[in-house]
């Protein structure tokens, strides 16, 4: 029986080798035009540094001219490269279109702008919800729509990329992230459909899923994060912006549809592979083999999270306790899983 | 194989203890079911089913005349009166008024939705905005309006918030960038919301119907891009009452994901991702069939991309 399964595996591998679509692709960065929204700080700026140092021509789009000019200077300092800067709010299509036209035809479009305000939906203002949906989701549609026509008409015959910076909160919804997760999950639906629409134009869609990343945006977010969100999000550790940028660029250049950034990210990516395309037959093989195991891991994470939530409420509110069917928890304090990345992580921020 | 047969009972036992949140039964009889987009299509079919099971039903929609027709047809069928409320889900204040007038809700069915399929390159941004505003932001408005009273319900029994998604909320298909974006978004909302509301005994369900015979589908079919039809047009089309029945059953068992037919089950297993699963047996099936379902998925995608390039070559 075991023998039978082992015989089967090479056939599965062979099958996958022949069937995986879209095919693998290499997207060169050097001497090409990389356009980054939300490019004046955080992950966007780190991506700009990296792309510039690899010989790309970089354009940055953001709201604040002042931040853009600082970014421009810092890139000139570190790699001697000159980047173009454009100021626009992604919620306003006309401004975005003007910036995109001024920048010139784009080879690699990195849609990285994003706002995140974590809050229980019960407490959150609807204007904050709308803000996140408008900037993170609708704003991305605006940018793509503005850039697509010229991207489709490129002369050079080389593959192009539309890359969306999502978040691990775009792979699993967590306490406090109803609006943010909604906007980031939305990006994936957009990406899966868009890839089918633009593949014939040799444009390749990538979605990057960073964990908590050390950026000015994150510092702001951390100040208002609900306690429970902090506890649950700690399961995946955090990364530096330049680390995320490196992983992102490698993913973009290989035209990978899903680009995870750390170990937990890879596991999450495999668990949530869903109906995303996979160009690399070996990766596809691993997804098939490990899929079941990773679903189990995901279920264990959910078990842990829900126990944490229950424990937290019991400690903090002292009233409603969900009827327990399983083994009793030891002690009053329930320790939530901490993944290897956060143990090895270099970012220190205070946890409860 | 032998190893697996030995392993299976242990796996089942493990799953029995770890599935979260715990299984729960949500009674419908004598409770208040509030359905947005309730004047036609799946919403109306749900109203029929809920009333036949003894629930008190309220309908929210934009058109007063459609609501009145719905009210009449329901009265004719069951001799029961439903509450009708007009509001556009994009208008929070109107939604709030309706929800307050309707009274505390036990089962909130967020079912309204708009779909305009088109390749993004050709689609007007107003249409994109419409879908995101109605399908996604509108759902936030409805939930936010209903939540306060749901949280302070007197009766202690489990309550439900059910979100009507679509198979397009499990996989993005050519022509559906905006629609899929809005429906995928509902899932992110749902996964997070369940963690926030579990301690209030409120249970989230997300429903993933395939094409369903509704006035909405007729409208959509007229403008569907050819490529979309080629890829997605061959799936089954369900009757609204069948969707309503399975939906209500799923809501009553507080299933987080509700799917339809074999293809729906396969899609659900393939896209289970990190979503919660209350039924340890379904969890077991998810594990068991995950490899096969990813393989089938890859075959399906391979087909799609081949069709696209073949069609482009012509």
TrEMBL record, chain A:
One of its GO terms (cellular component) is endoplasmic reticulum membrane. Pathway: Lipid metabolism; sphingolipid metabolism; Sphingolipid metabolism. It is an enzyme of class 1 (oxidoreductase). The keyword Cell inner membrane does not apply. GO terms for molecular function: 3-dehydrosphinganine reductase activity; nucleotide binding. Its main location: endoplasmic reticulum. It catalyses: sphinganine + NADP(+) = 3-oxosphinganine + NADPH + H(+). The chain crosses the membrane at residues 280-301. InterPro entries: KDSR-like, NAD(P)-bd_dom_sf, Sc_DH/Rdtase_CS, SDR_fam. It is found in: Endoplasmic reticulum. GO terms for biological process: 3-keto-sphinganine metabolic process; sphingolipid biosynthetic process. Belongs to the short-chain dehydrogenases/reductases (SDR) family. This is 3-dehydrosphinganine reductase. The lineage of its organism: Eukaryota, Viridiplantae, Streptophyta, Embryophyta, Tracheophyta.
Automatic annotation (TrEMBL), chain B:
The keyword Cytoplasm does not apply. Belongs to the short-chain dehydrogenases/reductases (SDR) family. One of its GO terms (cellular component) is endoplasmic reticulum membrane. It is an enzyme of class 1 (oxidoreductase). GO terms for molecular function: 3-dehydrosphinganine reductase activity; nucleotide binding. One of its GO terms (biological process) is sphingolipid biosynthetic process. Pathway: Sphingolipid metabolism; Lipid metabolism; sphingolipid metabolism. Keywords: Endoplasmic reticulum, Lipid metabolism, NADP, Nucleotide-binding, Oxidoreductase, Signal, Sphingolipid metabolism. It catalyses: sphinganine + NADP(+) = 3-oxosphinganine + NADPH + H(+). It comes from Hibiscus trionum (Flower of an hour). This is 3-dehydrosphinganine reductase. Its EC number is 1.1.1.102. It holds the Pfam family adh_short. It comes from the Eukaryota. InterPro entries: KDSR-like, NAD(P)-bd_dom_sf, Sc_DH/Rdtase_CS, SDR_fam. Residues 1-21 form the signal peptide. It is found in: Endoplasmic reticulum. Coiled coil: none annotated.
């Amino acid at each position: 029986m075991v023998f039978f399964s082992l015989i089967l595996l090479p056939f599965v591998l062979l099958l996958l080798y022949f069937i995986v679509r879209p095919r693998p692709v290499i997207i060169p960065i050097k001497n090409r035009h990389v356009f980054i929204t939300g490019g004046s700080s955080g992950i966007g700026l780190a991506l700009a540094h990296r792309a510039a140092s690899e010989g790309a021509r970089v354009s940055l789009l953001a709201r604040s001219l002042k931040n853009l000019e600082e970014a421009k200077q810092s890139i000139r300092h570190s790699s001697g490269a000159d980047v173009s800067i454009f100021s626009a709010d992604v919620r306003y299509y006309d401004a975005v279109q003007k910036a995109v036209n001024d920048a010139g035809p784009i080879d690699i479009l990195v849609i990285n702008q994003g706002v995140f305000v974590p809050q229980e939906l019960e407490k959150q203002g609807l204007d904050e919800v709308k803000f996140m949906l408008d900037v993170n989701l609708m704003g991305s549609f605006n940018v793509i729509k503005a850039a697509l026509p010229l991207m489709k008409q490129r002369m050079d015959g080389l593959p192009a990329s539309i890359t969306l910076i999502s978040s691990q909160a775009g792979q699993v919804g967590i306490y406090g992230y109803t609006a943010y997760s909604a906007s980031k999950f939305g990006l994936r639906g957009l990406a899966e459909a868009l890839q089918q629409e633009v593949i014939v134009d040799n444009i390749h869609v990538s979605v990057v899923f960073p964990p908590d990343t050390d950026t000015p945006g994150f510092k702001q977010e951390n100040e208002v994060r609900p306690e429970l969100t902090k506890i649950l999000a700690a399961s995946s550790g955090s990364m530096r912006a330049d680390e995320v940028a490196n992983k992102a660029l490698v993913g973009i250049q290989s035209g990978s549809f899903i680009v995870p950034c750390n170990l937990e990210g890879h596991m999450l990516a495999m668990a949530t592979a869903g109906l995303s395309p996979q160009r690399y037959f070996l990766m596809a093989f691993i997804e098939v083999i490990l899929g079941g195991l990773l679903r189990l891991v995901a279920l264990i994470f959910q078990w842990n999270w829900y126990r944490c939530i229950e424990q937290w409420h019991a400690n903090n509110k002292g009233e409603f306790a969900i009827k327990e069917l399983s083994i009793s928890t030891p002690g009053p304090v329930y320790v939530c899983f901490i993944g290897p990345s956060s143990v090895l992580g270099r970012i220190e921020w205070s946890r409860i | 194989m032998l190893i697996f047969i030995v392993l299976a009972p242990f796996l089942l036992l493990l799953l029995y203890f770890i599935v979260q949140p715990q299984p729960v039964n949500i009674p419908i009889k004598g409770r208040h079911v509030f359905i947005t987009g309730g004047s036609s299509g799946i919403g109306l079919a749900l109203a029929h089913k809920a009333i036949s099971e003894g629930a008190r039903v309220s309908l929210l929609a934009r058109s007063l005349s459609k609501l009145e027709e719905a009210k009449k047809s329901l009265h004719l069928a069951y001799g029961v009166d439903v509450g009708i409320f007009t509001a556009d889900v994009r208008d929070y204040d109107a939604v709030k008024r309706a929800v307050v007038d309707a009274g505390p809700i036990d089962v909130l069915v967020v079912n309204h939705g708009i779909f305009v399929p088109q390749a993004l390159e050709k689609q007007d941004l107003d249409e994109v905005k419409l879908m995101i505003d109605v399908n996604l932001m509108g759902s936030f408005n409805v939930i936010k309006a209903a939540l306060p009273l749901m949280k302070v319900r007197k009766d202690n029994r489990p309550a439900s918030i059910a979100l009507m998604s679509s198979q397009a909320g499990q996989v993005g298909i050519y022509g559906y960038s905006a629609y899929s974006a809005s429906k995928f978004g509902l899932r992110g909302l749902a996964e997070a919301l369940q963690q926030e509301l579990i301690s209030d005994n409120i249970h989230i369900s997300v429903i993933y119907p395939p094409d369903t015979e509704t006035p909405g589908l007729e409208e959509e079919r007229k403008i569907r891009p050819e490529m979309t039809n080629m890829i997605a047009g061959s799936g089954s089309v369900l009757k609204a009452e069948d969707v309503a029945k399975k939906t209500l059953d799923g809501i009553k068992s507080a299933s987080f994901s509700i799917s339809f037919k074999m293809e729906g089950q396969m899609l659900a297993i393939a896209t289970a991702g990190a979503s919660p699963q209350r039924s340890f047996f379904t969890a077991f099936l998810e594990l068991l069939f995950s490899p096969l379902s990813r393989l089938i998925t890859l075959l399906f995608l391979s087909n799609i991309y081949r069709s696209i390039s073949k069609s482009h070559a012509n």
